[in-house]
Amino acid sequence: MYDSDDSSASTTGFSRSAFLGAGTAALATAAVATSAAAQQPQNIGNAEHDHSSSDPGPVNSTLFGINPNTNTPPRTDHGDIGPVWYSFDLARKRVEEGGWTHQITQRELPPSKDIAGVNMRLTAGSFRELHWHTANEWAYMEYGTARITVMNPDGTMFIDDVSEGDLWFFPAGYPHSIQGLGPDGCQFLLVFDEGNFSEDGTFLLSEFMAHIPPEVLAKNSNLSPTDIAKLPKEQLYIFPAQMPKSLAEDKAAIGGNRVAVQQQYTFKMGAMAPTFKSSGGEVRIVDSSNFPVSTSIASALVRIKPGGIRELHWHPNASEWQFWLSGQGRMTIVMPDARARTMDFHANDVAFVPAVAGHYIENTGETDLVFLEMFKAPRFMDVSLNNWIGRMPPEMASAHLKLDPSVIKKIPTEKQPIIGK
Ligand code: MN
Ligand code: MN
């Protein structure tokens, strides 16, 4: 049954679909109403397309124009599923000399209890100050190149250079750094496995040392009062610096293989072979099965060609936090008690899908749609609706869908993450 917000349909017995089926001639006739008829309720079964949906304003024309599924929801939408959208283009930027940062956390997107995201830019040579924090950190390089370091508690050190399409993972509490390289620094998405994480609430090298009594710092670190007086009094956070030496020189400078880690904290996601490919696009899945250090974040990089869809599915093990990299599309999320919401999404938007809620994503643009799916989970998992129907004995499927078994055979029986148009 469709949305029952249109109460006239049930009270009059008037069938909306039958009315629509009568064709455009009938609609035109209805629209050219007499003045007497015009005083009657007009929303008889066609509220989206008659005067009921007229909007005298005011209007934010930019938002209105790019959100057709909010302004004229499909008839299948119903009820309230809570907030599922935010955009980095609405998140206040903290701009410092050397770059900027902004974030979308549970404060901006309240249902997202498991994941918070930060988008950050560092110019060439500039640092995100050495730090650590309570959450695990997963990252995707969006632009440029960077040098990253992370130290294990046993004193072994990881140093690597990353570029567009690469990932890193830093375990909670492990101290790390990010520095923009040439020619134009970098931009990256950070994903934390705590919805309430704040990029302004990290443990910083500068603040740790600035808030230790100087005589203790002298005893601990063998520094003189003159040395200690030169240390930063306040946090550096993001700041410009000289470009580093080559990766090989930096590795050699700290002791080479003697202090090198066993683990690989970076992964080349953009360069890996697709996990799945079809005429409609491709999917690259990275989780702890192929990137072992990423114990708490599973991810998929999805590319959908124009008109294609990420098939109807859900995730049995986690809620989904999406970051849209390019293109545009729409997603419908269906929740219990017939609640459903369709929304439009664009590059730099974040979408949230509640745990185990059914959804699809359709490319509604004329260019490829590219987005990241992230989950607070060690493994990527999804359940395909088509696949499930295909595994039902024919009579079971027929009894539920009210379709003849010969019709049900048309439905693909295997999981197809992307279906071409
Ligand atoms: Mn960090
Ligand atoms: Mn999904």
Give me the secondary-structure topology:
Blueprint: H1 7-12, H2 16-21, H3 24-31, H4 35-38, H5 61-66, H6 68-71, E1 85-87, E2 94-96, E3 99-104, E4 116-122, E5 127-132, E6 137-151, E7 157-163, E8 166-170, E9 176-180, E10 186-192, E11 203-204, H7 205-210, H8 214-221, H9 225-230, E12 238-239, H10 247-253, E13 266-268, E14 276-278, E15 281-286, E16 297-304, E17 309-314, E18 320-326, E19 328-335, E20 339-346, E21 349-353, E22 358-363, E23 369-376, E24 383-384, H11 385-390, H12 394-401, H13 405-408, E25 418-419
Antiparallel strand pairs: 1-21, 2-3, 3-4, 4-10, 5-9, 5-11, 5-12, 6-7, 6-8, 6-9, 6-10, 8-13, 14-15, 15-16, 16-23, 17-22, 17-24, 17-25, 18-21, 18-23, 19-20, 19-22
The structure holds manganese (II) ion (2 copies).
Overview of this protein structure:
- By secondary structure, the protein is an alpha+beta fold.
- The protein has 3 domains: 72 residues, no CATH class; 174 residues, Sandwich (Jelly Rolls), CATH 2.60.120; 144 residues, Jelly Rolls.
- Strands 2, 3, 4, 5, 6, 7, 8, 9, 10, 11, 12 and 13 form a 12-stranded antiparallel sheet that branches.
- The N terminus is likely disordered.
- The structure holds manganese (II) ion (2 copies).
- One manganese (II) ion binds next to loops.
- One manganese (II) ion (MN) binds next to loops.
